[in-house]
Fold these 2 entries.
Entry 1:
Amino acid sequence: MNLEAAKPVAAASAAAAKPVAVVIKDIVQEYPAPGGGVTRVIDKVSLSFDQPGINMLLGPSGCGKSTILHMLGGVRPMGVDTPTAGSVLIDGVECHAPHDDAVMVFQRYANRPDLSVFDNVAFPFRLKLWRSQVPEVDWRQRVADILKAVGLSDKVGLRPAQLSGGQNQRVALARALVLRPRILLMDEPFGALDAQTREEMQQLLIGLYQAWPCLVVFVTHDVTEALMLGDRVIVLSTQPARVADDFLIDEARPRSAAWQRSREAQALEERILNQLHQASPGRGQVRVTV
């Protein structure tokens, strides 16, 4: 990754950035259950986030992590009241729909197969909102800068089918960051990658975050990933999701293999696993990367 190319853009972005406050207040989410009644997925979860920081949302599979993330991004399933109770506020305003300041990166990177790498990253600027806010000469420069930062300058004319999984995820990350979001929401974006590529993507995210600081909420069920990336780790129980633990990590990034083997890191790993076992005995899955 070439962060030298990103510095001028990052400096301009940082100078214009405004603080953001995100509050989840007493969230409850229920869905209709087969045969009548409801299934409660989230049970009175309250969280608050401030810019900047990488906030890891960790818990067993199916515990409601992605549901919370989608609420933050304004993604609402049709035919279901979301949330059932409680509220999501961004800068003090309740969020009911996609928010201009929040972008999402998914495990399935959803790059357009008919578009080149350049056009996939530039795609948001085809939309009326961003086209009206950013002049063409500016967004073309942004796209060129972010592609250089993620190491894809030599791939601009290729299609997604010509890229590896890690390269496709770089395209998806670049498409999100080219908008210079105040809130970056990541739903297990590296979960489908092999171990080496996943580690490369984690280091890439750290570098990009240093260049474009913003509020990151990152869903994972990988304990090691949470410890290597997070400023803050929030542990959820199994359904219905409740906050089982919430703590900060002071160690500077990037975090070395030596730190990962340290007593501090091992104690944090044990803390997470103990909380998960207490909060969801015998249910769900978490992963510890070896």
Entry 2:
Amino acid sequence: MKTVLITGSSSGYGLETARHFHDCGWTVIATMRRPRAGILPPSDRIRLVALDVTDPASIAAALQVAGPIDVLVNNAGIGVVGAFEATPMAHVRKVFETNTFGAMAMTQAVIPQFRARRAGTIVNVTSSVTLAPMPLAAAYTASKMAIEGFTGSLAHELADFGVRVKLVEPGYAPTTRFAENTEVRVEDLIPEAYAAFAAPIFAGFAEPALTTRELDVAEAVFAAATDGSDRLRYPAGADAVALAEAS
């Protein structure tokens, strides 16, 4: 029986991905900053583990509790939507600490066990903002684009050790808590000078032509984790697939 460790499993894509792997017969290490009972079905194949991907001590403790794993899914992330001009640099750094450096730190921490076994898969969850330029998402896009480049390079670096590194690129899902786990409110990041520009964009967010279901992402992560090929990118959701095909 294989084991997957998923970061950011408290809600949204991470939670649905944990459910999906469990339904497919895997042992799931569902990690989050503050584990909450009842969010996943009771099962001897599910363990909730506290993890803050920005804290090296927390990473070490979580991996010790988890034991050997077969797949790491770097899903934890925070969003930021708004004019870059109005986004505090302190918040930009927080976005990078979780979205970029957190994923890198988790990856670096699991590589030794994967390399020693000459087996293992790392799945980095980014976003469809990496597939086409999108306004009012500059800082978030930068944090995810960094992981795209990191993943592509690392895939080559670890291939000789039998370790695969993959990218899942989810589209937009209005039901996910994209910007809830942030200290900065969207309305505070839209100065009056940007109001006219931002209005039709937010209207499009409210009624998108194509959307991504949480299950779309879970299925794409599972496909990436179990695909033995050298394929790197897995767009997830109708909108992400359309962007990938157009690019």
